[in-house]
Amino acid sequence: MDGKGKSNQARSKGLSSTLNEDRLSQLPDPLIIQILDHLYTKQAAKTSVLSKRWRHLWLWVSSFDLTSLRFTDFKAFVSVGDRIFDSTRASRIHKLRLRLFNETEDRLYSVKDVSFLTSWLDAAAKRKIQHLDLHLCECDKSHFYMKPLNFYHCETLVCLKLSDVALDDASAHFVSFPCLKKMRLLENVYPSEATFEKLVSSCPVLEEFEVHILGEDAKVFRVRSQSLKRLTLIRDHSYSSNSLVPGVVVDAPLLSCLSINDLASESFLVDNLVPRAKLGITITFGSGYIDEIVKRSRIRSFLLGVSKVGDMTLCAYTFQLLCDYSEFEPLPRFGYMSRLGVDLRVSYFKWLPTFLETCRNMKSLILTWDSHDGEMSPKRRIINEASEVLVREFSNPQETYSPFGGAFNKRNDTQRPS
């Protein structure tokens, strides 16, 4: 190519670059900020080098996603965060997702000094944050406590998720989230029972709550709320054979959906459950070393508290536990029950009629069993209380049995009915 051709090519590239720059410059700042809002924070921050005009635009987005793993250096991660949460900045923050790991893209770190989070969270509260997701993954929780901050008085927070966070005991006296409707607390550290209880009760409009409790956390967890409608509670098995895990107390008069997966608590009390509520149960009432009389008393108290449910799903172990209980004491009447789902061991199928006798208004029965556990053929005499019974064998089609329709019909759908 001669010199003239090269000159024309260079001129053409320069013109194309100028046109592209002109197109970008024609976009109004609010539109550019809206585009940046869809990027990870690290990616949005990189646009600051494009021009002087772009230098600070990324700081005006309303949603930030900061994860230390996306940075090659932890100091760079902190530096970006410090710019975002500059105390002089006044733009609102709608969503904030913070993830701290003990490593970055290419090396491990010993993350001990996370004191910067205090000023970051305070700044977020001042800027009217609505959604916060904070996860201190594999960090040393003993080096950061969520102490009484301005954040604990955040009047705009609607959704809160805390994972692997240690809460300070003094915070129990300062919490107030007047607009919080959804909260998830996953494997956090609570120095006292009062810390957890106060955190929940200080959310007067809370509607959805999920809590995942560490199995070795031997405290009574009380969920008291006048507004709560949906609760999911998970408590892991305690691997310490000598540890005693007292239990859980739920007092929520508007609660209409309760899901329990508790492999550690020795007792589980439910008060003021809404009639015809939906209930899913995987519960063990502690280890086998508990006195049987005491255990039966705790099971009785639990069953009386949930006797008004309208939709119940039982895991195989819990169903077995209730069947064993029924040999010594009668089961309560479930007068509101219209739907029952049971994951069933074939060996305990014989107890199903006893349980169904307590559900006189049941219209739908869903039985699920593992085909490796043996063969099961439902008998008409035990299903005549339900208008429809769905029997599901793992990996096999469902079969629908109708007491009023003669022979059963095959179903090709393999999903468990909801």
UniProtKB/TrEMBL annotation:
Q: Which domain of life is it from?
A: Eukaryota
Give residue ranges for domain F-box: 21-57
InterPro entries for this protein: F-box-like_dom_sf, F-box_AtFBL13-like, F-box_dom, FBL13/AtMIF1-like, LRR_dom_sf, LRR_FXL15/At3g58940/PEG3-like
Q: Which Pfam families match?
A: F-box, LRR_At5g56370
Task: Identify the PROSITE patterns for this entry.
Answer: FBOX
Q: What is this protein called?
A: F-box domain-containing protein
Q: What is the lineage of its organism?
A: Eukaryota, Viridiplantae, Streptophyta, Embryophyta, Tracheophyta
